[in-house]
Amino acid sequence: MDINDLLALYHQKKVEFGDLAYKQISALLEDAKKQHKRDFLKSETAKKAKEAGRTPDHEQSWRAFKGKNLEKLIEHIIIDEVKNLGLEVINGNSLERTTGDNLSEELSKVKRNLLVDYGEFGSHLPDVDIVIYNPLTCAVVAVLSSKVTLRERVAQTGYWKLKLSADKVTKHIKVFFITPDEDGTLTHKKPSKKGRSIVEVDTDGCYVLSEAEIEESAKVKTFDKFMGDLEKLLKMK
Length: 237
Hints:
Blueprint: H1 3-17, H2 25-41, H3 44-51, H4 58-84, E1 88-91, H5 92-97, H6 105-112, E2 116-117, E3 123-124, E4 130-133, E5 140-146, H7 154-165, E6 174-179, H8 194-202, E7 205-208, E8 220-222, H9 226-236
Parallel strand pairs: 5-6, 6-7, 7-8
Antiparallel strand pairs: 1-4, 2-3, 4-5
């Protein structure tokens, strides 16, 4: 199974649920897990484990696949609407891994506009999954982090928000988190779990890909509100 299979499953949900397909991401991942397990048990990794007398560890393989491809799925979901706003999308890892010699002039400028200055210890890119920028100015508008649950990365996302806010060059960049929230951290505003507290105080907001009932706030909303908020953000500039 690869990202194309995951996208095919999403488009099946899109046909069935239309604009509410985003609520089916957890169900989609469950379907994908079954397909991934069938493929995994046929893989060389599984065969070698069996030959060595070990039980093939599908869970470990699945967690790696899910973590790597959720961000690609989200990028796929938003990219057309983002471009309709006159913006562009780039995967954060692409900027991180690519040297200046291999980047286009446009992306080289985007990369410089996102760097966090650590003084004598150099400048480094924040760990983010998706970068949304203006292709006319190469200014970064927003960065997105995406994980299945908040505990995997939300504190790190809050850290990068604080670092970006501390520099006049990057303080305008909005830092968002997108998640299916499979452990229900965001369900209630009060009493608030630690992950929700971090979202409410240390990020610019979180958008939830779930059919669960969420007690919304100015910072925590269902995913269908993301593009509208991004459009409002552009009008404010």
